[in-house]
Design brief:
TIM Barrel, globular, alpha/beta, single chain, binds flavin mononucleotide, 13 helices
Length: about 350
């Protein structure tokens, strides 16, 4: 109810104005999160907890995807909502202003967004300070890393190296973002040889201080490109893959499209990845892209997936989407007569809905 009223007001602003205002409000009054259906207390019992192989303990199977809190200004608020984990960033080493406005568009009937933000952010020093000074309310915190626009692809590995060093101690996991369509040439870093250059540059840092490292990929890759990337992920022993980022739909205009218009494409990519990783359980998948209903989460689980993230459906449906997912999980646990989600997913082949 509260979010409905808030959304009515916020949607009278231009999308980026509404976004900036929301971040400000979140920053000012973190305890307000409780009014928006914050469920920190309810999640603490471990009923919904899922652990990654590297012991990141998500208190709920749905996390917040990167890009909403790029500068880590609302961590204290967001971690009081029902998410199991929060991913901040994309952060670049130096501050940068991003692409010219307008660069964020809403498709209300499609519950979708199109953005061409271009990694606008205040840089790594600013984010690191925010992380150090805010409460995470015991939630898992990921930091999503990107290269500066002015850094050429030849030098990109150095940017990721700096960012790894900066955040490996303060974050629970890190993500190499090479899949935003809004930084020219970034997506070509997904080509195996280019990706390996970045990973080689990170090797020493990873040996000195271990932090689970993920890579976030685009939904517009060909199946064989995805297979090739999975081989590299295995070779370099990354924690896993986050799929997917936004998709390019040129008929809609520049930038990347998220939300329902992305759902089918992202799901195809996730299904391929789950199929190919079936024999390599130490490499995990965080599913993201167009997830707006529990039906999709269930399908993902039935296919062997576990953790997911949302962004657009959170904008359109508000924190209520998390409560709705929680109620449906409760129903599933009761129906299948198990106490915890982890137990349910361990026996997902037998589970019914
Ligand atoms: C306005 C906006 C900004 C985004 N910024 C980032 C970003 O900085 N880094 C990133 O990895 N993904 C970014 N994303 C992509 C989301 O994290 C997510 O992968 C994508 O929106 C698909 O999920 P969804 O359909 O649930 O929105 C952004 C998405 C939106 C809508």
């Amino acid at each position: 109810m509260l979010y409905k009223t808030f959304k009515k007001l916020a949607f009278t602003f231009d999308p980026e104005g509404a976004h900036d205002l929301t971040i400000k409000l979140m920053q000012l009054a973190p305890p307000l999160a409780e009014l928006y259906g914050g469920q920190r207390g309810d999640l603490s019992g471990g009923r919904y907890t899922l652990k990654t192989r590297h012991n990141n303990s998500w208190s709920f199977p749905i996390g917040l995807a990167a890009g909403l809190d790029k500068n880590g200004e609302a961590i204290d608020f967001l971690t009081r909502l029902g998410f199991g984990a929060i991913e901040v960033g994309t952060v670049t080493p130096k501050p940068q202003s991003g692409n010219p406005r307008p660069r964020l568009h809403r498709y209300i009937a499609d519950e979708s967004l199109r953005n061409s933000m271009g990694f606008n952010n205040h840089g790594m020093e600013f984010l690191a300070r925010n992380i150090a000074h805010t409460s995470r309310n015991s939630k898992v915190l990921g930091v999503n890393l990107g290269k500066n626009k002015v850094t050429s692809n030849d030098q990109a590995a150095l940017d990721y190296q700096k960012l790894y060093q900066k955040f490996c101690r303060g974050a629970d996991y890190l993500v190499i973002n090479i899949s935003s369509p809004n930084t020219e040439g970034l997506r070509s870093l997904q080509e195996v040889d280019n990706f390996k250059i970045i990973l080689d540059a990170l090797e020493r840092g990873r040996r000195e201080y271990f932090c689970p490292l993920w890579v976030k990929i685009a939904p517009d890759l060909e199946p064989q490109e995805i297979s090739a990337l999975l081989e590299v992920i295995k070779e370099y022993k990354l924690a896993g893959v986050i799929a997917t980022n936004t998709t390019v739909l040129s008929e809609r205009g520049e930038g990347g499209v998220s939300g329902r218009l992305l759902a089918a494409k992202a799901q195809r990519v996730r299904t391929q990845i789950l199929d190919e990783l079936r024999e390599t359980p130490r490499i995990e998948l965080i599913g993201v892209g167009g997830v707006s209903s529990f039906e999709q989460v269930w399908e993902f689980w039935k296919h062997g997936g576990r953790l997911m993230q949302i962004y657009s459906s959170f904008i359109f449906q508000g924190p209520a989407i998390l409560n709705s997912f929680r109620r449906q999980i409760d129903y599933l646990l009761d129906k299948n007569q198990v106490d915890t989600l982890a137990e349910l997913l361990d026996n997902i082949d037998l589970a019914t809905r």
